[in-house]
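Researcher: Go.
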Amino acid sequence: MFPRVSRRAAPRAALSIVATVALASGPLAAPVAAAATDTAPARVYDPWLWQATIGQRPAGPASVVFYTSNTRYFESTGVLVGRDGAYRLIPLQVGEDHGLLSPDGRHYVRPHRGVLVDLTTGEELRTHRPGIRALAWSPDGRALLGTRDNDDAVITYGPDNQQLNDPAKPDDLLVVDPYGGVERVLPAGTFASHAVGAWSPDGSLVVVAGPTDPATERQRLTVTDAATGGVRWQRDLDERHLLAGRGAWSPDGARIALLAFDGCAGLACTLEEVAARSWRLEFLDAATGRPLGTTVPVGGWATELVGWRHGDAVLNRLSRETAFQERHASLVALTAGGSEQVLVTGPPGVSGIDVPADLLADAVFTGSAPRPSPWAAPLWLYPVVALPALLLAVLLIHALRRRRQRRASPG
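Model: Structure:
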């Protein structure tokens, strides 16, 4: 038997549930940082499975973007943390590389797809030709250094089974306007592919590295004029030295950083041997390419130098577990003396952390990092969740009416 409930109580209860859900999707969905332009979270967390995407509910400029498979897509997915602490998903296509945040954190480039994402509106704009992999944003955020794969997709053969084409062709190095699509080729020498690139602080020069032979991991390093492509200098690196990353050029313009390691080198190394390498930073004179002789040890598994903070190099670093589900990523600032400050840490399974260059330089990385809000779901989910409550209210009202009709009838 149903309890005694007034006719108006049930619909009021249902409306209360809907109002509560709607309120949770508003200002209370995520805590707001006291100074959004000057703070960034020191820790990031796995999002909820139902977390909204940037297209469904834009969260504005990013303070952090990280990548994890611990989402409803069960494969590598970008996760944006907004300046107010809101979490949003950046779904990636199968095999899609990690994208790049603009220096001000307002745009995100999808590699190979020719797509620029406006993080303020969530809109994806096709602004440049597909097939270009972005290597680095220019310091002013107006240009991208990128590379285009020119290899033939299919090998063709003649009637005598002779190969008619060369599928492995040198890649193009490009400077691309990510907003208007204008691109130009930089004739910086012949590379089988371009692995890493970085801009000088004033944007007048670029340094790029990559193998000249696809069968080897050894890189050639070239510094070239960003306007003309004229080569200033180049040198070949051994297999234990790599250009450190998109932030390899020091803020004073005097040094270019290399990542060097001791341990197994070459294509035949196992994952366990790669994880066991010991890493350090070394530096070249940016004007001549000569080694400067200074080294900075790096603890853990160094993957990329992403920028600088108060003169200290900031690197993405992984823990040494070989299972990616157990591996931790962190963003670490290294001083010249070898001491370190951990800026951002992530949960197990995170494969990379990115902070906009403007925020990385001066932001306060606060320990009171907000967790993702369980209420920040796609808007269509709220009526789906509220529907059972509404159906229950309708059934309850119907049952009450029938009960009163039975009481009012004679006999």
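Model: Residues 96 and 189 are 27 Å apart (CA to CA).
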